[in-house]
Amino acid sequence: GIDGGRWRLAAFVIGGALAGLAGGFSAALSGVVSPETTGFSIMVLCLTSVVLGGTRHPMGAVLGAALAVGLPELLRDFQGAWLLAYAIATLAVVLWAPEGLAGMVDRLRRAPRDRKEPPAWPAVLAPTEGPRQLGVDRVVKRFGGVEALAGISFMVARGEIVGLIGPNGSGKTTLLNVICGLERADLGRIALDERPIGHLPAHAIAQSGVGRTFQAHMLEGETRRDELARALSNAPAFLLLDEPAAAATDRERAELVETLRRLRDAGLGLLVIDHDIELLSRLCDRLVCLDRGRVLAVGRPADVRADPRVRASFLGLDEAA
Known about the structure:
The chain is 45% helix and 19% strand. It has helices at residues 4-30, 40-53, 60-74, 82-96, 100-108, 172-179, 202-208, 221-232, 250-265, 277-283, 301-306, 308-315; strands at 133-143, 146-157, 161-165, 187-192, 195-196, 210-212, 238-242, 269-273, 286-291, 294-299.
């Protein structure tokens, strides 16, 4: 839900303005403007002050700045080798005080730390509001001469879980990318209720009520839950999940199923990609099977799994067989 381009431009403009202001003050103070005043040594001082002081402690910036000003005077006898002494000091802090000197001081004097309660799902989820249906109508997406999506049509209603299955390369992730605005459909219509959203940028689609998680093959349990919490932070009406159970343990899969069912009961509409057909059969109200960018079958999990075309697609058999 964040316009990345807008914030990158704002950061560039603000950073440039502050740099220009600092340059003006420096020129007024020193009476001279020279590229040498912003040479490599100044950059090293700035980096060292951050590393030595620490970035997560309130006093880190103060202590780091004091050291950045004082160390050159203390290392004056090293003459041209003072940068080497800086490097050694920085490396020592990184190895033995990664939280910075300010954090190390707190650790040595055993200052109490804030203890936060571990995050947990609320006992009762608030009812979901927003659009009632997410519709995909004859959506086409081409990459050069490759037709990744060839007229995909189906619908997801709030309060149901739809599983999206198919062999690798069938267009599942591409479809999610098109729905959430990371890719632009060449043809077709994507709508929330009667409102078209296919022309909107990704952040506007997220603000309209569509959340998204991404493939997470290497994520551990806590990080996996963080990814789901991030997708839910905008209170979406529909949630798109790309292989949320990949590389998960049996316990994590059971927790995921329970969580997604609670979200469905709270009124969310969920579209879930996964290669675990057994998991999706237990979880989903309907399955949509894709193959080569086309819909092979839509219906109840048992009916889709029994479809000869679906079995042939997953087993790699000749379609005529």
